Amino acid sequence: MTKDMTTGSPLKHIISFAIPVFFGMLFQQFYSIADMMVVSWTLGEGALAAVGSTGAVFFLIIGFCMGLSGGFAVHIAQNFGSKNFAELKRFTGNIIWLCAGFSVVVTVLAVIFCRSILVITNTPADIFDMAYNYIIVIFWGIPATFAYNMLSGIMRSLGDSRSPLYILIASSLLNIGLSFMFILAFGWGTMGAALATVISEIGSVIGCLVLIAKRFDLVHISKSDLKPSWSHIRRLLGNGIPMGLLMSLTAIGSTVLQSSVNSLGSVSVAAITAASRFDGICGSVTVAIGNAATTFCAQNMGAGNIDRIKKGVRTGVVVAVGYSIVAFLIVMLFGRTLALLFIDAESTDLINLTYQYMVTCAAFYWAVALIHVVRLSIQGLGYGTIVMIAGLLEMVARGAVGIVFVPIFGFTAACFASPAAWVIADLFIIPSFVIAMRRAAKRIANEREMQSENLVLSGET
């Protein structure tokens, strides 16, 4: 089930890897989309706003889990590319310990401070209890989130993006069924929607474990591989922490923005909630291409193929930007119709606000496409600090719009918050990629020189 990306057509590798990742992300979106649809249809716009008001808080915590796991997986891909399978297993063993430790700490902190975070983000009083009931259950499921992202990240780093897709299809269908049962049959409200998500994610963890046990001999580790190694842990944290912080920094900016939007009232919150679901689906394509670029760059970094990395990144950028243009046209033409999946046709004001947000963001999809491909390529090279700085700039830009411009220009300013963050991040990340490639080339040259010297010394011996 593994795939070696160090040979063959970069375009073919990126497309064949990205398609399953996209559909996997699409089905993962169904976790929240199923919640939104069932909540909106059965509990009304207030409940929809309640779930939506937790979006930035949710991503603040869950995003850290995802980023950390993704940063860890880079080391698996690099050692797979260099065919150093002994080191690959040692990294796998230490990843298990780190994910277990982080999952406990993050869960405890998230649960303790959950209510305070909702207060700080100005969650409207009329939806506060529903929002709390939803997000507190999600936070209790953080260990499952960590485990799934760790296991699926390992599979993807070995070149297999299809197995996580199959698992997500099954768990998404489970989520939809449980959402209907918990809300309609049991009457558990927003808490039921969250519980359905957590149970479904636990199912996806079980599915990953079964597949890895049957099909991925490379990561079948021994007791010696599970022994903590400080050198491996240090390297894992060196790439994982910046990636986790990147996701959290982005979310902090979104949380500040969310706080400003919450002050505009539940109608504005509901509009951005509905629009963000489509924004997430459209953005999943470029994220999938970026994930393909991460694995492609990491494997070829391990193999020392610097020219091949350049070719792969160029290919990813062309495909992602081309898609972003098509996506904008689709949103512009059919955005109002798509909004009706979540919003009653009689709520014309809500539909108009939702459409305004969708079109504004879609006009800048090219900018986020560059971020996803270039930033994730840098991650694959192993330079997590550069990626984190880009996230910091996104956070500042998004937060600044929320603090300064939303109180003045209202909903229109909220629509431009993400596009502004994307453009500013691009101004940093593109030249940073050039610098990262120079560092990577120098690193590869130094490693080859050391290998040559070692061979000479071995011959003399």
From TrEMBL:
Keyword list, A-Z: Antiport, Cell membrane, Ion transport, Membrane, Transmembrane, Transmembrane helix, Transport
GO BP terms, alphabetized: monoatomic ion transport
Pfam families: MatE
GO molecular function: antiporter activity; xenobiotic transmembrane transporter activity
Predominant location: membrane
Superkingdom of the source species: Bacteria
CDD domains in the cross-refs: MATE_yoeA_like (cd13138)
One Gene Ontology cellular component annotation held by this UniProt entry: plasma membrane
Location in the cell: Cell membrane
Membrane topology type: Multi-pass membrane protein
Transmembrane segments: 12-34, 46-74, 95-118, 130-151, 163-186, 192-213, 317-343, 355-374, 386-410, 416-436
Recorded family membership: Belongs to the multi antimicrobial extrusion (MATE) (TC 2.A.66.1) family.
Role this protein plays: Multidrug efflux pump.
Name of this protein: Probable multidrug resistance protein NorM
